[in-house]
Amino acid sequence: MSRRIIAAILSMSICFSLAGCAGSGSSSDPSLVEKTVEEMVIDYGSYGSEANERIDTLLTQISDADKGAGERWKRIMELWQSPELGNPINYDILPDGLPDNDELCIVVLGFQLEPDGSMKEELIRRLTVALNSARKYPKAYIVCTGGGTASENPAASEAGEMAKWLEDQGIEKSRIIVEDNSITTAQNAIFTYDILTSLYPSVKKLAIVSSDYHIATGELLFKAEPILRANAAGNERLEVVSNAAWKAPSGTLSPMFQAGTLIELCGDVETAFQVYYDNYDIHSLPPLK
């Protein structure tokens, strides 16, 4: 796969996400929709179900401004509010019953590298779950996600190191897809969507692999992105069907952090990172700069 082709795909991805947040072909003011969406997700991130009445009011405002955007965000909010999001978690390996062909793609979410570019134990643990799952489903593709997060080694990327590790364990290079431009989970979802829908048309089903505390956030974003991109409900090109996780001894992601990820999915990176600075609580790491 040519890096030039991937770069061209990724350069358009944020624009497509913004169009999805405002509605395809909408004549409404996209900034009004964006601001209302941000208010809505921050309300839910802050107050949870106590904000439901306010959320209904804001969804109505979004629909009045842009019917398509209103329908999309109603579905995303229902997904986020559902107790089924991220449940059940399958530990160590994907469950039985998934497609045993190249319709399935295992998406491995990255984790910040050591300053020298080597992988931290948590990322290796996630990869071990992916390896177990890839052996169970030998026809599935595997996407490694994550860009350059090594402060002292700009040549290293999370996805690149992950791909090398999987190859060293015997996974065929032809099965491995490298998404090495992202530094956040929202970017993982945006860029992976572009690569798969543009270059891997056989892929229809996704299985998310990460640490257990990260699964719900990963599923939320990888389910929301196809909703934002679809021209109508039911026409989503990718579907999250399962997960597998490493049982981490620590780590949390708050609802407000999830609110930030949805804001970033709509393209407002500045506001998203303001949220992250206040709510980035994976092992007390600071946000990436």
Structure, explained:
With 289 residues, the protein is α/β, with parallel strands linked by helices. It has a domain at 104-249: Rossmann fold (3-Layer(aba) Sandwich). Helix content is 51%, strand content 10%. The chain contains ten helices and five strands; from the N terminus they run ααααβαβαβαβαβαα. Strands 3-2-1-4-5 form a five-stranded parallel sheet. Helix 1 packs across helix 2 (30-47), helix 8 (215-229) packs parallel to helix 9 and helix 9 packs antiparallel against helix 10.
Features:
single chain; 289 residues; alpha/beta; Rossmann fold; five-stranded parallel sheet; 10 helices; 51% helix; disordered N terminus
Low-confidence stretches: 1-12, 281-289
In terms of structural class, how would the helical and strand content be classed?
alpha/beta
CATH H-level superfamily of the domain at 104-249: HUPs
Number of helices: 10
Please tell me what the overall shape is.
globular
The helix fraction, in percent, is 40-55%
The H-and-E topology, N to C, reads as: HHHHEHEHEHEHEHH
C-alpha end-to-end distance: 29 Å
In the CATH scheme, the class of the domain at 104-249 would be Alpha Beta
Oligomeric composition of the shown chains:
single chain
Major β-sheet strand ordering: 3-2-1-4-5
